[in-house]
Each structure stands twice: as structure tokens, then as C-alpha cells.
Amino acid sequence: MKRRTFLQSAAGLASVSIVPRHVLGGEGQTPPSDRLNLASIGVGGQGGGLLNDPALAGQNVVALCDADSNRCAQIGKKFPGAEHYQDYRVLLEKRKDLDAVVIATPDHMHAVITAMALRAGKHVYVEKPMAHSIEECRVVTALAKKHNRATQVGNSGHAGEGIRLTREWIQAGAIGTVREVHGWSDRPGKFWSQGHDRPAETPPAPATLDWDLWLGCAPERPYHPCYHPVRWRGWFDFGTGAMGDMAVHNVDPAFYALDLDPPVAVSAETSPLPKESYPLWEIVTYEFAAKGNRPALILRWYDGGKMPARPEALDPDFQLPDNGILFVGTKGVIFCGGWAGTPTIHPKALREGFTPPPKSIPRSIGHRAEWIKACKTNRPEEAAAGFAYSGPYTEALLVGNLAVRLQKRVEYDAAAMKATNAPEADALIRKTYRKGFELGG
Q: HEC profile for 122-161?
């Protein structure tokens, strides 16, 4: 064989060299070229749990970030190739190769990190609630639209069958005209405590925790275990109480089925309100204006052990569970379990006489799976709980916290983003940020 012929033959063989199956992706495996480069920010508790979802774990998890380095070390055992960070700002500045980020920090840092990620061109999955203040809802919603990024908020029931059935049944007139809605949760209490004043003790922070980074945009204060881990939800500076933890799940069917806008007014009845934490219990009454063919209606939220009065239409042997929502209509009621659970029509005679309409709403492939798909196709609308929906919804819920904190009925003008009868609410609607952790416009 002539030398030239040999070299040509060798080049041809090289072009068809064998590639291992794990590179191409075999049955049950995703080829690397189809995986997102993913970073997770906040990897304790809920953040670590999110990475158990195959939709996320099946991506190329390249970075883990937490103010407590021990949490990265623990979850990092599952992702040995991922880099570890304590400062989300360093991560987002260094890793230009990221496609998307998952954010599961305490509430007060959700929007600040989300805004930086969106400006860096990343798709964002952020745990509920998507923001800590009303202005934050507006800012990150606008940023997602501006940068055309796929977003999703962690109210996972929004992808379920229950919330779709509820909307279809209500729109089909299953219980007549809905004029009242009641949602509730058993939290706080056994899950975290509220109703406290700031502790006087100032114990040292754990050696693995960067307390300054954990505080982030919140005002400076000494470390105390009553804030971290887990217990931050009940404090004004860090959490949004049961409203941001469970109302975002349990009253989602109302906003979705009834197409609710932000309320026109909100009032609250609560236990005594401390200076820096949410009350032990609250009953928050939202007033919504009429819209289209739907009349004005009332939605009440109950937490901390408070429950709605039992409607007469409920089946006699039916017991209300710790979490749920009731739609009260002119013909009967619909009950849904917590986390936008399966609906049930009451009374029994109405239920047995109801013929469910055709399933007209597209069904989900999975809450986080649909976000991953939206990222890969660059079609933000494929993530149903994205910011276009969750921004106005979260804003509406947070108006309720204005009434709780101000201890007065708040009349809300959504167009102006103002409490028209309570100028003191401005400092809560648009909060201040510590230097180095700003939200930006």
C-alpha cells in the first residue's frame, strides 16, 4: 500500500472510533449534550431535597453554594464533580458556563439572587415564595420577561391534577357561583415558632457558617439558633410566615380557578404582634373585585391552629384536615386538600349528579421537569408556575402580610403599588438592602 493511501485509510478509521455508551446516552441515560449546566444555591433542607428530583439530578450539576460549607460537603457526596461556593455572587461571576440555577435559600434572599442570575442570562427555579416583598415580585417578573428566561416557583401543586380539575369543575358550574373561599394551614406551631422578641444572647455562629453571607440583604444582627437553621420563617427580616410557606400552596387553586388579581383590600385578625416576628396565629381576609362574569368575592386565610367554620354542605362524616381550601358556591362546596390536592364536591347528592367536563387544560409532565423542558426549548411559557403567573400571585399574598404587620385594614392600589390608606406600608412594599446585596431595578 502506498503511503498516501495508508494515511487516508487511517484517517477514515479515526473518524468512526468507538464512543462509550455513557457519553452518547443509552437507555435510561441523558446524553451530556442534552443536559443543562446547573448550579444549586442553598442546599440544606429543601435545597438538598430538590436535588433528589431526577429532573434536576439528571442535569450536569456543576456547582453547589451555601453560606454553610458543611451543607455543600454533605450534598456534594452525591455530586462529586461539582464545585463548592459559599458566596452566590462569586459563583455567578465565575461560572459563565451555567445554563440555569436552583435557589432554595431563606425567603429574604430569593429575589436578590434571582435578579442577579437573570441579569447573567440564567434560567431560574426559585423556591416559594418567589420574593420577600411586593416590589421584588415586580422586579424579578420584569427581569424574566426582559431576558426571556424560563422561570418556575416551587409551589409544586401547580403541576398537579388536582388544581386542573378544580378549575375545570368550577368553570363548568359544579357548585354554582363562588362567593367565598377559605384556605388554612396548621403552620406555624409544630414546624417553627413565632410570636417572639429578639433574644438577648449572642452565641457564636457554627464554624462552617458565614453569618454575614447568610444575613445577605437583611439588616445586621448577631447569630442565634432561633434564626438558623430552619427557624427563620417566623421572623420579619428573613421569612414571610405561614403565608409564604403554605398559603402559596393551599390557596393556589383559588387564584388559578377564579383568575384572581391582587386584592383591593385586606384586613387581619391576629394574636398579639411582636416587634420582629409574625404572630402565633392569624385570620387574613382578602377582598377581590368582580372580574368578567365573576362577582366580587372574599378569601380568608387561617393559620396557627385557626380553622374556618364548617359549611353545612359538607358531608356529615367529612373531617377537615390540617391543610386545605374550601370554595363556597351557591349550590354547594368544593374541598381540596393541601398543596392543591384533589377536589371533592359536597354535598353527596350534588357530587353524584355532577358530570365532569372534558379535561381541557394541558396536563403537566412534572413541576420541575416542565421547567427543565422550558429551559432547553427556551420557551418560558411551558413552565406553568413561572413568574408571569407567580409574580402577581405572590404579590397578592404579600398584601395580606401588610395587614398583619400594620394591624389595620389595607386598601391596595395594584396599579400604583401602594396602600392608599397606609403610607407607612411603603417601607414594607419597597424594603431596604444592605450594601453589597442590593436588588437593583
A: CEEEECCCCCCCHHHHHHHHHHHHHHCCCEEECCHHHHCH
pTM metric for this prediction: 0.92
- Give Dmax (Cα) for the chain: 96
Closest CA to 54 of 21, 88, 30, 81: 30
SS (H, E, C) 38-93: EEEECCCHHHHHHCCCHHHHCCEEEEEECCEHHHHHHHCCCCCCCEEECCHHHHHH
pLDDT in tens, 81-137: 999 999 999 999 999 999 999 999 999 999 999 999 999 999 999 999 999 999 999
Helix axis angle, 387-406 relative to 134-147, nearest 10°? 170
Cβ contacts of 203 within 8 Å, gap of 6 or more:
223, 224, 225
Q: How far apart are CA 203 and CA 183, in angstroms?
A: 39
Structural domains in the chain, sorted by start? 158-200+234-360+388-429 (3.30.360.10)
The DSSP call for residue 209 is: B
